[in-house]
Amino acid sequence: MKIEIWSDVMCPFCYIGKRHFEKALEAFPGKDDIEVEWKSFQLNPDMETEPGKHINEYLAEKKGWTIEQAKQANEYVTGMAAAAGLQYDMDRAVVANSFDAHRMIQLAKQSGKGDAMEESLFKAYFTEGRNIADHATLIGLARNAGVDEARAAAVLKGREFADAVEQDVYEAQQISVRGVPFFVLNDRYAVSGAQPAEAFAGALETAWKEWKQNRPALQNLEGDAGETCSIDGNC
Known about the structure:
- By secondary structure, this protein is of the alpha+beta class.
- The chain has one domain (2-214): Glutaredoxin (3-Layer(aba) Sandwich), CATH 3.40.30.
- The protein is built from nine helices and four strands, in the order E-H-E-H-H-H-H-H-H-H-E-E-H.
- It has helices spanning 12-26, 55-63, 67-83, 99-110, 114-126, 135-144, 149-157, 162-174, 197-214; strands at 2-7, 35-40, 182-185, 189-192.
- Helix 1 (12-26) runs parallel beside helix 3, helix 4 (99-110) packs antiparallel against helix 5 (114-126) and helix 5 (114-126) crosses helix 6.
């Protein structure tokens, strides 16, 4: 059964949602038959990378808040993260455009490393205070996620995977995604936001039952069976 997750690596609730989902999935009996695909959803695509600007200053300007309101908002998500077992250090967060980070995710997906790349980017942004728009940083994070370093560098030199990022954003628009994280299970059921693990567990169970019921059984073609080798080696 396939599960698609739209997110942005700069979304604090996306990392928290990832942990809650992982907790539910780990306890799910059918977890070995679950395929997870991370999808791009870029927040603030026009954001300029400004390493010298404090995240509270950026949020105050963007949302019309006071610095104190921005600080309180970040303290709130930091507390939520801690409850999920994550350590956020928002004072170190670097204001950065995430488009190239999404291109790295798309690259990583080709070799089955999408989840590892997501985790690497989330940790880099929220915990380590790293600039996720910096190409040298992205290449290092890709390497840590198991992605070929030279391939990552080559992608960042051009516009490869830009179309894939934009396609994911377009698909999100088609199913009326208004915020992330957004989880789609079996193309039928949606879970929006950093829901508790119990909510994900319930959604998994519901989607799984339908998937199992509707999965077509294998049908043997008419005619005599061809020659085969059995599991014990008899041919």
